[in-house]
């Protein structure tokens, strides 16, 4: 049960011990000893609530490891619920920037919210590390030197899927996604490589957002056409609803369901159950990735939170790691903004998804891989098994004029 | 069918009390969450379906006796305002007690599969919802047309003063109608959870659609609610998939046209 | 004020002023003419969208920011008012609600209006010699409009026209019997309220740099109604007080508890039941006799 009171996560014993050990000299280092305030504008309610929680948990894992102190500064997380609403997100963002004067702003989940807050963040010269929202325009014509993205651009997971689906699944596809910028971006990216590879889009539907949908009308319509492939983007509770209803209405018999990875990520997979078997998706992550960082990450996450992590937790993890590395590079200084921005641009570390670094051209993460995955049952549990991969996926960044 | 259950309550409340109960959506929400809670404790969907409406009916009765009754003298406008305030109260209460995540519940085991209808498959639970709705419609019709209580209700809708003059304790009937309306909304709420899940804003969302149904069908008419909910349900289903950009606009446009041209809707009675 | 406090309280004040204008315009209908409208959001949102589109795509000028939204809202007010005023009571409530929802549906479903995401990136008008992107300048800008709206409404309610409105609220039948064209007076009030609400909407768009379909949803009108009732109907200071209470609760109390909506709902219900004259009514123990 989630209590939505605005809470501050203070470093516990670690911080106390650190201050005790430092003693009087701590008082002299005045600016450095100020707590590091990280403002989170994420959904903790409505259709994307689970994503907000996962991202927060990924971040907490990193800060737990650092004992909630980075470069001598105590870490404070200030949570604000944006309710997946651009209007609410804007209000909360302004509060975090102006009233709480956060050092770093993190979030949001919904592309709609990011679009609404972009100008406010840019004009306030507030450093924002996007922990999910993938609107392509933020890496393109609306990029900003203050905005970094540690998650993905909506284009990245879908662009390789177009050609792959045309080659390996079918050349006739019906597209369906929620009706907002992320839905539009993702379908557009899929078409970019699907059509040139010989694919044909036989239908395209956009469903009301962010209401919790009953997809019956759309599923009936698709069922009547019986296309070879249905390519979908849904996330959070909408994904659960869609995948289950897709099965209930019997579409699995005739149309293969493929989509962006969020459709079957670990946050929704258990709720989807057997209805998700066989779905093929593209994503920058899978819990089964066999690299040392991921193995440690999954193990620690399971121990701390008693559940399996998902790609959103990885995004939170990478966001927090970015902050940690940048802060260590500047010795804890957040006053000199340009220096801090430079430090963020240059971070590089091992993430559960692979080697993490930002593309200097767009300040968007370069995906070490986009994995093509299929949902299978492994040892009694459902998981996204990697069946193919595309390396080094960078957002094209058309129209972004950041210094390269 | 969900719309039908909700609109019957709303239309009867308007018919008897002259009140547009804007908090009707909140009864729907409360019903859904109460159903979730009861099902979580008892592990049984059917018990939840039976008990949740009772709880919500009690809440409705309290509101009517405690708050609405005080405002009868001040006129319907004040009462509408009051019910509006309850939306905020209940939506936040629900968020407080159950959290703001979207919560779901699977359909009861016996209804979990799907049925073949021709070449297509249709989930059994949805069939159940339709059948159940029709059954409730039938029961309500029997109640209104064939029982003494029903006669009193119809008389009250038609002419409140006369009915009071005939010695009927109108106040008690009012409370009863309000409670029953709330109970119907709660039933809809419980039934909705396996299809649409429960979340704090669900009441506001369905409230507007319920208003449309009541307007089109006619305020105060059971027949109207059935007709209206069928019409709107079909229009929405058809419109969402085939005319997604304009269907919402057209539906509201129809509501406007009905209110302008024929405010009593298809089967409603004249406003007093 | 901007020179005394930090920027956050100043921006809160701006939001209160803007919503105050919106609420005051609604009070002209609710408190003086006795018309409860859940469709006032139509003009607020229309003003906002027109301002957003014009400022973004046509010209960032005062014409876009003031003239066009006011005209659009006025025309809409005329049409909606003419159609709605013919019915009264609950039908008026539902009709105004339906009109607002029609506009909401249009904005929500139309891609070039931003669909559910709305329109971000709305610039403030460029005035000669003044940079409205600076907080103190924008604050003065908002205060000017607030003052204008307040003075205009004050003049209206004190005028013979205002007295007729109050007469209509008290007893429309008597007014009609005495020879007043009741509906025409109501329509004028409706259009005036619409224009001012449109201006408020435009200011809100400039304040946020963003408009969303939520501005057109009927509950936005309901929120203004909350402010009017809590603050005090049939006054001009009342709605502003109500706006301050609402926004204060929303922004400040929400730091300590997320339950501000519960509190607001309960307070509102309390006022409807026991203090229909709102906060100001409670303050002014000896209420002035109704004109």
Short structural summary:
The complex is a heterotrimer of chains A (404), B (272) and C (291). Chain B is mostly helical and 272 residues long. Chain B contains eleven helices and two strands, in the order ααααββααααααα.
Descriptive account of the structure:
The complex is a heterotrimer of chains A (404), B (272) and C (291). Chain A is α/β, with parallel strands linked by helices and 404 residues long. Chain A has 14 helices and 17 strands. Helices cover 39% and strands 23% of the residues of chain A. In chain A, strand 5, helix 6 and strand 6 form a beta-alpha-beta unit. In chain A, helix 4 crosses helix 13. With 272 residues, chain B is mainly alpha-helical. Chain B has a domain of 187 residues. In chain B, 53% of the residues are buried. Chain C has one domain. Chain C is mostly helical and 291 residues long. Chain C has a two-stranded antiparallel ribbon with strand order 1-2. Chains in contact: A-B, A-C, B-C. Chains B and C meet through helix 4, helix 9 and helix 11 of B and helix 4, helix 9 and helix 11 of C.
Write the layout of secondary structure elements.
The complex is a heterotrimer of chains A (404), B (272) and C (291).
Chain A (H helix, E strand, L loop, with lengths): L7 E2 L3 H10 L2 H4 L1 H4 L2 E7 L6 H17 L3 E2 L2 E9 L4 H14 L4 E3 L4 H13 L4 E3 L16 E3 L5 H14 L3 E7 L2 H14 L5 E8 L8 H10 L3 E4 L3 H13 L7 E5 L8 H4 L7 E4 L8 H14 L5 H19 L7 H9 L2 E4 L2 E6 L4 E2 L1 E12 L2 E13 L11
Parallel strand pairs in A: 2-4, 2-5, 5-6, 6-7, 8-9, 8-10, 10-11, 11-12
Antiparallel strand pairs in A: 1-4, 3-4, 12-16, 13-14, 14-15, 16-17
Chain B lengths: L1 H16 L6 H19 L2 H24 L7 H23 L15 E4 L2 E4 H23 L1 H11 L1 H6 L4 H27 L5 H16 L4 H21 L4 H15 L11
Antiparallel strand pairs in B: 1-2
Helix pairs in contact in B: 1-6, 1-8, 1-9, 1-10, 2-3, 2-4, 2-8, 2-9, 3-8, 5-6, 9-10
Chain C lengths: L6 H26 L8 H18 L3 H23 L5 H20 L9 E2 L14 H24 L1 H11 L1 H7 L3 H27 L1 E2 L6 H14 L5 H15 L8 H15 L3 H6 L8
Antiparallel strand pairs in C: 1-2
Helix pairs in contact in C: 1-5, 1-8, 1-9, 1-10, 2-3, 2-4, 2-8, 3-8, 6-7, 6-8, 9-10
């Amino acid at each position: 049960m989630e209590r939505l009171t605005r809470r501050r996560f203070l470093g516990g014993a670690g911080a106390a011990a650190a201050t005790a050990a430092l003693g009087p000299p701590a008082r002299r280092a005045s600016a450095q000893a100020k707590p590091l305030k990280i403002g989170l504008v994420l959904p903790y309610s409505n259709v994307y609530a689970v994503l907000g929680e996962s991202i927060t948990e990924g971040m907490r894992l990193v800060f737990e490891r650092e004992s909630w102190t980075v470069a001598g500064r105590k870490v404070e997380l200030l949570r604000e619920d944006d309710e997946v609403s651009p209007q609410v997100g804007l209000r909360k963002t302004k509060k975090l920037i102006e009233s709480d004067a956060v050092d770093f702003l993190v979030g949001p989940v919904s592309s709609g919210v990011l679009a609404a807050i972009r100008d406010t963040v840019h004009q306030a010269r507030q450093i924002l590390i996007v922990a999910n929202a993938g609107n392509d325009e933020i890496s393109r014509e609306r990029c900003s030197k203050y905005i970094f993205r540690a998650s993905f651009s909506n284009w990245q997971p879908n662009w390789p899927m177009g050609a792959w689906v045309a080659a390996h699944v079918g050349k006739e596809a019906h597209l369906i996604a929620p009706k907002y910028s992320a839905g539009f971006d993702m379908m557009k990216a899929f078409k970019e490589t699907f059509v040139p590879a010989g694919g044909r889009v036989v239908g395209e539907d956009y469903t009301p957002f962010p209401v919790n949908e009953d997809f019956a009308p759309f599923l009936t319509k698709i069922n009547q056409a019986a296309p070879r492939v249905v390519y979908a983007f849904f996330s959070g509770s909408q994904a659960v609803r869609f995948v289950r209803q897709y099965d209930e209405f019997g579409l699995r018999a005739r149309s293969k369901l493929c989509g962006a990875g969020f459709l079957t990520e670990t946050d929704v997979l258990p709720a989807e159950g057997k209805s998700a078997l066989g779905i093929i998706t593209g994503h920058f992550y899978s819990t089964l990735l066999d690299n040392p960082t991921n193995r440690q990450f999954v193990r620690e996450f399971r121990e701390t939170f008693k559940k399996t992590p998902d790609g959103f937790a990885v995004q939170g993890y990478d966001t927090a790691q970015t902050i940690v590395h940048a802060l260590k590079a500047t010795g804890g200084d957040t006053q000199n903004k340009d220096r801090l921005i430079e430090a963020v641009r240059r971070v590089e570390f091992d993430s559960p998804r692979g080697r993490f670094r930002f593309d200097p051209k767009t300040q968007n993460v370069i995906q070490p891989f986009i994995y093509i995955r299929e949902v299978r049952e492994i040892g009694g549990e459902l998981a996204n098994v990697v069946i193919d991969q595309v390396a080094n996926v960078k957002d094209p960044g058309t129209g972004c004029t950041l210094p390269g | 069918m969900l719309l039908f259950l909700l609109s019957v309550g709303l239309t009867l409340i308007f018919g008897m009390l002259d009140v547009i109960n804007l908090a009707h959506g909140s009864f729907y929400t409360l019903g859904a969450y109460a159903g979730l809670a009861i099902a979580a404790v008892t592990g049984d969907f059917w018990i939840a379906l039976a008990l949740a409406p009772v709880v919500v009916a009690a809440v409705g009765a309290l509101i009517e006796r405690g708050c609405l009754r005080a405002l009868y003298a001040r006129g319907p406008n004040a009462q509408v305002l009051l019910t509006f305030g309850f939306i905020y109260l209940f939506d936040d209460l629900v968020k407080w007690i159950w959290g703001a995540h979207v919560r779901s519940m699977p359909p009861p085991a016996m209804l979990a599969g799907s049925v073949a209808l021709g070449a297509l498959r249709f989930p059994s639970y949805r069939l159940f919802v339709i059948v159940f709705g029709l059954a409730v419609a039938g029961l309500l019709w029997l109640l209104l047309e064939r029982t003494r209580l029903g006669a009193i209700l119809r008389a009250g809708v038609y002419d409140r003063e006369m009915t009071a003059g005939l010695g009927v304790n109108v106040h008690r009937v009012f409370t009863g109608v309000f409670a029953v309306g709330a109970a119907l909304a709660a039933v809809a709420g419980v039934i909705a959870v396996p299809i649409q899940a429960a979340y704090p804003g669900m009441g506001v969302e369905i409230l507007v659609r319920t208003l449309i149904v009541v307007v089109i069908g006619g305020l105060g008419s059971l027949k109207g609610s059935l007709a209206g909910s069928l019409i709107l349900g079909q229009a929405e289903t058809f419109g969402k998939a085939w005319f997604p950009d304009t269907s919402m606009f057209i539906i509201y446009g129809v509501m406007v046209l009905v209110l302008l041209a024929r405010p009593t809707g298809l089967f409603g009675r004249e406003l007093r | 004020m901007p020179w005394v406090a930090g920027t956050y309280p100043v921006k809160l004040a701006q939001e209160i002023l803007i919503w105050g204008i919106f609420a005051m315009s609604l009070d002209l209908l609710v408190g003086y003419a006795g018309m409860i409208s859940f469709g006032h959001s139509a003009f607020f949102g229309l003003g906002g969208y027109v301002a957003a589109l014009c400022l973004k795509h046509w010209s960032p000028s005062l014409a876009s920011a003031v003239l066009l939204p006011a005209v659009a809202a006025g025309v809409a007010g005329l049409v909606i008012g003419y159609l709605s005023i013919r019915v009264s009571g609950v039908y008026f409530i539902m009709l105004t609600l339906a009109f607002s929802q029609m506009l909401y549906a249009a904005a929500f479903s139309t891609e070039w209006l931003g669909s559910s995401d709305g329109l971000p990136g709305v610039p403030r008008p460029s005035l000669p010699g003044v940079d409205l992107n600076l907080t103190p300048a924008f604050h003065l800008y908002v205060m000017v409009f607030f003052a204008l709206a307040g003075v205009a409404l004050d003049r209206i309610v004190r005028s013979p026209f205002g007295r007729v409105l109050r007469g209509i609220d008290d007893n429309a039948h008597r007014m009609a019997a005495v020879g007043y064209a009741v509906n025409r007076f109501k329509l004028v009030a409706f259009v005036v309220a619409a224009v001012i609400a449109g201006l408020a909407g435009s200011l809100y768009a400039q304040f946020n740099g963003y408009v969303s379909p939520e501005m057109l949803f009927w509950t936005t009108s309901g929120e203004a109604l909350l402010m009017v009732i809590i603050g005090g109907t049939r006054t001009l200071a009342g709605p502003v007080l109500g706006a301050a209470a609402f926004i204060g609760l929303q922004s400040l109390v929400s730091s300590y508890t997320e339950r501000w909506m519960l509190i607001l709902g309960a307070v509102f219900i309390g006022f409807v039941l026991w203090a229909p004259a709102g906060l100001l009514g409670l303050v002014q123990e000896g209420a002035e006799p109704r004109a």
